[in-house]
Amino acid sequence: MRLRELAERINAQLAPESQDLDITGLASLADANTGDLSFYGNPKYLTALRKCRASVVLVPTSFNEPVGPLCLGVDHPAEAFAALLPLFTPPPISHAPGVHPTALIDPTAILGESCSIGAYVVIQKNARLGARCIVEAGSFIGEESTLGDDCHLYPHVSIRERCTMGDRVILHNGVVIGAEGFGYELSEGRHKKIPQTGTVQIDSDVEIGANSTIDRARFGRTWIQEGTKIDNLVQIGHNVTIGRHCILCAQVGISGSTRVGDYVTLAGKVGLSGHIEVGDKVIVGAMSGLSKSVPPNSVMFGAPAQPLRDFKENYPLLKNIRKLYNRVKALELKSPHVD
C-alpha cells in the first residue's frame, strides 16, 4: 500500500517525494525491516528507534531527532498505528446471530435481537441478554443475571446468579463472576461458612482478562465501575468497589471490602489488604503490598508499600544494612565502654 494512502487515513502531512513509498507491513521498532511501518511514542525507546530498520516510523509531531527511518509526525503515534493495523491483518472473527442447537436456554430467559449463542452454552431461568451479545462455547449465565447490549463472553465464562453487566462488557476465557466470597467464622474450633447473599455489578465498558475472578458480596454488591480494565489472573474479593477507568494488571489480589478510587493503577502482583481505601489516581508499583489506606494521587512501592520517594531513599540503606551491622560490631569490639 502506498504511503500517501496511509497518511490520509491518519491525517498526517507527507512530503511529495515520499508519497509513493510502498509499505508492505507493520511491525515493532525491534522487528521492523525495509518496507515496514512502525511507531515511536515513548522516549525510553529512542535507542530502539535509532537502530530500527523500518522504512517509516510514526513519531510525535514534536520529535526532531536525526534517525534512519523516514519520520511521519502525528499527534498520537500509538493510536495512529492501531488505526492502520486492520489494513494489514486478517478481519476479526465474525459471530452470526442465532442459537447453536446444543445450547441449553431456559424458556423464561430473554435474548435481545441479533444475539449469537455458541455451542453448549447454558442460560438459566429469567436471565436477560441485551441486543447483539456474543456468548461463546461452554459459557454459563445463571438465574436472573442480566447483560447489557453488545457484551462479549469468550469461551467458558461463568456468570453466577443475579449478577448484572452493563453495555459492552468483555469477559475473556475462564472468567468467573459471582462465585461465593471467601467468608468463614471460627466457632467451636471449626471454620463455619458465612452465607454470601449479595451480587456483583459490572458497569459498561469494563473488560476482564482470562481466568480472573470477581466474588459476590456477603451482602450488597461487589462493584466494578465504568471503563475499568482488568488483566488476566486477577482476584477481587467480596464487597470490593473498584472505581471508574482503573487499570489492574496481572495477578493483582484485592481483599474483601476494600474501596479503590477512580483512575487507579495497580501494577502486576500488587496485593491490597481488606477494609482499606485507595484514593483517586493512586499508582501502586509491581509486587507491592498495601496494608493501609492511601490518599489520592499517591505513588506507592514496596512491601509494605510506602511513598515512592521514601522507598528510593530507604532502599539503598536497606541494601547496605549488613555492612553497617558489621561496622557497628567491629566498633563495639574495639571500644572498652560498650557492654
Descriptive notes:
This protein has 339 residues and is α/β, with parallel strands linked by helices. The chain has 2 domains: 3-87, Udp-n-acetylmuramoylalanyl-d-glutamate--2,6- Diaminopimelate Ligase, Chain: A, domain 1 (3-Layer(aba) Sandwich), CATH 3.40.1390.10; 98-310, Hexapeptide repeat proteins (UDP N-Acetylglucosamine Acyltransferase, domain 1, 3 Solenoid). Helix content is 14%, strand content 28%. It contains 5 helices and 37 strands. The protein has a 12-stranded mixed β-sheet. Strands 6-9-12-15-18-23-26-29-32-35 form a 10-stranded parallel β-sheet, with no helix packed on it. The longest helix is centred in the last third of the chain and has 14 residues, at 321-334. The chain is flat. The relative contact order is 0.05.
Keywords:
339 residues, alpha/beta, Udp-n-acetylmuramoylalanyl-d-glutamate--2,6- Diaminopimelate Ligase, Chain: A, domain 1, UDP N-Acetylglucosamine Acyltransferase, domain 1, 2 domains, 12-stranded mixed beta sheet, 5 helices, 14% helix
Write the layout of secondary structure elements.
Layout: H1 3-9, E1 25-26, E2 36-39, H2 46-51, E3 56-60, E4 70-74, H3 77-84, E5 98-99, E6 104-105, E7 110-111, E8 116-117, E9 122-123, E10 128-129, E11 134-135, E12 140-141, E13 146-147, E14 152-153, E15 158-159, E16 164-165, E17 170-171, E18 176-179, E19 184-187, E20 190-193, E21 199-202, E22 207-208, E23 213-215, E24 221-224, E25 229-230, E26 235-236, E27 241-242, E28 247-248, E29 253-254, E30 259-260, E31 265-266, E32 271-272, E33 277-278, E34 283-284, E35 289-290, E36 299-301, E37 306-307, H4 308-319, H5 321-334
Parallel strand pairs: 1-2, 2-3, 3-4, 5-8, 6-9, 7-10, 8-11, 9-12, 10-13, 11-14, 12-15, 14-17, 15-18, 16-21, 17-22, 18-23, 21-24, 22-25, 23-26, 24-27, 25-28, 26-29, 27-30, 28-31, 29-32, 30-33, 31-34, 32-35, 34-36
Antiparallel strand pairs: 19-20, 36-37
